[in-house]
Design a protein that fits this description.
The chain is of the alpha+beta class. It has one domain: outer membrane lipoprotein receptor (LolB), chain A (Clam), CATH 2.50.20.10. It is about 20% helix and about 40% strand. The chain contains four helices and 13 strands. It has a 13-stranded antiparallel β-sheet with strand order 6-5-4-3-2-1-13-12-11-10-9-8-7. The radius of gyration is 27 Å and the shape is globular. About 25% of the residues are buried.
Length: about 250
């Protein structure tokens, strides 16, 4: 009798275990939507655009609007993509007024008029004190070379109604919006945000295909969408030319 009861009990336990396990549902795997795949593919294309472009030289004009005032200057630059650049800014007629450089580690600035020299780590520095916008030189390098600054993100989505990709951070906050042309081939505008969701800057682009087949902007306008904007006019550019690494370091004795 005891043996019979033991067998029955074992069968009941087995049934409970087997059928109980069979109805335990596993958490669903994160669904990868077609829209997300499309957005990731667009980011991939942006990251590989102009991938054979290594160095860049340019000439143009820069116009700063801030608090109702405007100032125009000529400018020249050289860049080694993605992290080195040097700017020379001078009045329409006159000698160099300011030199800016970033060698990937340090940001250098020289005010030749006031004879002041600055040097700060690149990762902690932006141009807010100079152009009133918190944009970094390495971001400007990307824009001038036809690339787009893309921060590290945790999630991505696409809004086809607005031809826009939205990048979000770990906390679900929007860190960047990338606006495309109607055919989703070219970027027309980016908006970059801080951790609180406040706009750091907006950048608008007008592109040209050069003789070498690179997509290089002929105009970039940076703005805080309030009272400050910086208008870059790219008049001439040269691609994949030799650039000495020493050009990205500014010595105070120069």
């Amino acid at each position: 009798m005891k043996t019979y009861i033991s067998i029955i009990a074992a069968m009941i336990c087995f049934s409970v275990f087997f059928f109980g396990c069979s109805i335990i549902k596993r958490p669903p795997s994160p669904q990868v939507t077609h829209d997300k795949l499309e957005a990731e593919e667009l980011i991939k294309k942006l990251n590989t655009r102009n991938e054979n472009l290594k160095t860049l030289k340019g000439l143009g004009k820069i116009k700063l609007f801030s608090s109702g005032k405007s100032q125009s200057s000529r400018c020249a630059w050289i860049a080694e993509i993605p992290s080195k650049i040097r700017f020379e800014i001078f009045p329409i007629a006159g000698q160099t007024a300011m030199s800016l450089a970033d060698d990937g580690e340090w940001l250098y600035a020289v005010n030749h008029i006031e004879q002041k020299y600055y040097k700060n780590p690149s990762k902690n520095s932006n141009l807010k004190r100079i152009i009133s916008l918190p944009i970094k030189l390495n971001e400007i390098i990307l824009y001038l070379s036809g690339h787009i600054y893309i921060p590290k993100y945790s999630s991505i989505s696409i809004s086809k109604d607005n031809n826009m990709i939205i990048l979000k951070g770990l906390l679900g906050n929007i860190i960047e919006k990338i606006y495309f042309s109607k055919d989703m081939q070219n970027v027309e505008k980016v908006e970059v945000f801080d951790l609180t969701g406040s706009l750091l800057y907006e950048a608008l682009f007008d592109y040209n295909n050069d003789e070498a087949g690179f997509l290089i902007p002929k105009k970039i306008v940076f703005s805080n969408k309030k009272d400050t904007s910086v208008d870059f006019q790219i008049e001439k550019h040269w691609t994949n030319v030799y650039v000495s690494p020493l050009k990205f370091i500014i010595d105070p004795m120069q």
